[in-house]
Design brief:
Length: 449
């Protein structure tokens, strides 16, 4: 019975924003690349300053140092108008220019160009090879509805990030989280919300007077699984975002928790205690067939799939304290992965499967977000705070989002981010309620697809 109580706390209390505020960069990379994002023409008459969103995205990544230049009487808005000598003198490597044009049908035409200042000086032409040598790294035009301008800005920032770093960006992704508010009658209300990675455009998927926990995205980003309660019993549901349709996955006796989609979307790992102690099971979502993965009377919880779908991570106290284990699904071979620290939990793979990210604690030290290299078995603590919870990795592996208590000490939890090398830290204050259980989305389709 003692173990069961501990497991309930582990699953539901520790794993349990309506935010229109921008992420605040609290720590960045010293060697960030200098770039200028010139204010696009036409933004003053548009509902979104698309150039400002692009600038903020690049700044938030920690990989870029965006510069404010106010020395020009006429700002450039096309690649041909960029005075390379002037911008070089400002210590800039690249310049982003662009324009917005309102169309009669209510849509907007958006054009942008990314210009490298150290390409050879050749006249612009229609030949793409000549244009490339002239310094145009990327350029494109879109016709889009006003409501999608912010999403387009994130997409453009992703393109710029990729062109200059060689790595896919994560600005056009979303984060799911649980927002907890408390009414005047002191009754808590729970909302499952989705928002852009920077907290803008929050949307409520579900409202409940019962706790909502452990949101997790389907691989295609079209559904979210989560845990909630009905008549005092935990249950796992799937919500289809486009229609709001809700599908029951598991509501058996005891614990039904910690859902995790397989990479192909056909199965779901979960924690069930229907046979006594909490253990990991995999359910085929088409046939309903259950496969038990872990056995024994230890607490086995928090499953996470490897990118290739051949292994599962999970947390277990079988060694005397919560630690991370890995099991190969083909032969059930299981091994312990973490030995540093007295507490390691809530682990997930990075997209390249070379590392795992986890919640970490060592003796009297505060909780932290840590990353462990699976080849060298070396562990690095990225950030520490007594109240860190629920780390989730961006789909490009560059950043990790987690919830933590606000500095004001009022008990409210907010979202925060740290880069996978620990050099970049950001916070996203939430004006309303307490934010828990963030889950980073996979990649979505490109704008216009």
């Amino acid at each position: 019975m003692k173990k069961l109580v501990v497991c309930i706390i582990m699953l539901f209390l520790l794993n349990t924003a309506h935010a229109a505020l921008q992420l605040e960069l609290t720590q960045g990379v010293d060697a960030a690349m200098p770039i200028a994002v010139v204010s696009f023409s036409g933004v003053s008459n548009a509902p979104v300053d698309i150039s400002q969103v692009i600038k903020q995205d690049l700044q938030n990544s920690g990989r870029f140092r965006t510069l404010d230049i106010h020395l020009l009487s006429k700002l450039p808005h096309t690649a041909s108008e960029v005075d390379k000598l002037f911008w070089r003198q400002q210590g800039v490597n690249d310049v982003v220019v662009g324009s917005l044009q309102a169309l009669p049908d209510g849509q907007y035409k958006v054009s942008y160009a990314l210009v490298n200042l150290y390409a050879s000086r050749l006249s612009l032409g229609t030949n793409p090879q000549v244009a490339a040598r002239a310094g145009i790294v990327a350029q494109q035009s879109f016709t889009i509805k006003a409501a999608r301008l912010r999403g387009l800005a994130h997409f453009i920032a992703d393109r710029i990030y990729y062109k200059l770093t060689g790595q896919r960006g994560m600005f056009a992704t979303k984060i799911a989280y649980v927002l907890i508010t408390q009414a005047t009658d002191r009754v808590k209300q729970y909302q499952l919300q989705l928002a852009d990675y920077d907290g803008h455009n929050p949307q409520t998927v579900l409202r409940s007077s019962q706790p909502i926990m452990s949101p997790t995205w389907s691989p295609n980003g079209k559904q979210i699984a989560y845990v909630t309660f009905y008549q005092g019993r935990s249950a796992i549901y799937i919500n289809t975002l486009a229609t709001g349709e809700r599908q029951l996955v598991s509501r058996g006796f005891g614990i039904n928790g910690a859902p995790a989609w397989s990479p192909d979307g056909r199965s779901m790992a979960m924690v069930l205690s229907k046979d006594g102690s909490p253990n990991i099971y995999i359910k085929n979502l088409q046939t309903g067939k259950l496969r038990r993965i872990t056995h024994g009377w230890s607490i086995n919880t928090e499953p996470a799939w490897s990118p290739n779908g051949q292994e599962l991570l999970f947390t277990s106290d079988r060694g005397g304290s919560p630690q991370i284990y890995q099991t190969h699904l083909s032969n059930n071979e299981t091994r312990r992965l973490t030995y540093d620290g007295s507490y390691n939990a809530r682990a997930s793979y990075t997209p390249n499967a070379k590392n795992i990210v986890m919640l970490h604690k060592d003796k009297a030290k505060p909780y932290g977000v840590a990353i462990e290299n699976l080849q060298t078995d070396t562990l690095q603590v990225l950030v520490q705070s007594q109240y860190i919870q629920s780390p989730s990795v961006a789909p490009n592996g560059s950043m990790i989002v987690y919830s933590t208590r606000a500095d004001a000490g009022n008990g409210k939890f907010v979202l925060a981010m740290v880069s996978a090398d620990g050099k970049v830290q950001l916070t996203l204050p939430a004006p309303d309620g307490s934010v828990r259980e963030p889950a980073w989305s996979p990649y979505f389709k490109k704008v216009g697809d």
